[in-house]
Amino acid sequence: MSGRLLTVSQYLSGADQVKCIEMFPSSQKEFTYDFQGNVADYTFEADYQTLVVDSMTYDRNTGEPNFTESTIVGYFANAEIDANAFIDTSANTSGIIKLTIPKQRYTGNLIPDARTNVALTIASFKWTNTTANVTDSHRWAIIERYEPDVTPGNPRDEVGFIAL
Question: In percent, how much of the chain has pLDDT > 90?
Fold first, then answer.
């Protein structure tokens, strides 16, 4: 390799420190960001994309996901998160912004207790200070987990899967 490509582990531990969580596809989660100052002149947007990772393990001591040997084998199309529905800016003059990562990010099949062909949704939350014209972002890596409402199966066999 050229040495310029990131492994999954390097990507998830990147400069803006991706936080890794596990969720059921039918679950949504709200996060509160405190910018510690008036952000009324900021714009906010979010999107997500589901990747399929060939394998993953868990650290025996911490229980944290380990992607050291993981490779992205494919992906699904990017999707925008509706800012009006999922980004609450009502307290923007106090610096408080609430982001909700919506449910049904990934709607395809999942392997129960998957350690191979894992659906990993990357949600990106981006804000722009329009006065200073500076943009920053934060990412969440969501390990999509099997639940009874999801058909057991390999994400790589789903319609819309794009192999790398």
Answer: 71
For 95, left (φ over 0), alpha (ψ -120 to 50), or beta? left
Helix boundaries (H) for 7-135: 8-12, 83-86
Cα–Cα distances (Å) from 75 to 47, 53, 78, 83, 144, in that order, read 14, 9, 9, 23, 13
Q: Is residue 136 part of a domain?
A: yes
DSSP symbol at 7: P
Q: Hey, is 93 helix, strand or coil?
A: helix
**pLDDT tens per residue across span 144-154:** 999 987 789 99
d(CA 16, CA 117): 25
Q: Is the CB of residue 52 less than 8 Å from the CB of residue 114?
A: no
User: What's the CA gap between 111 and 92, in Å, rounded?
Assistant: 41
**Averaged pLDDT, 99-112:** 94
CA 14 to centroid of chain Cα atoms: 14
Whether residue 158 lies inside any domain: the answer is: yes
Overall number of domains in the chain: 1
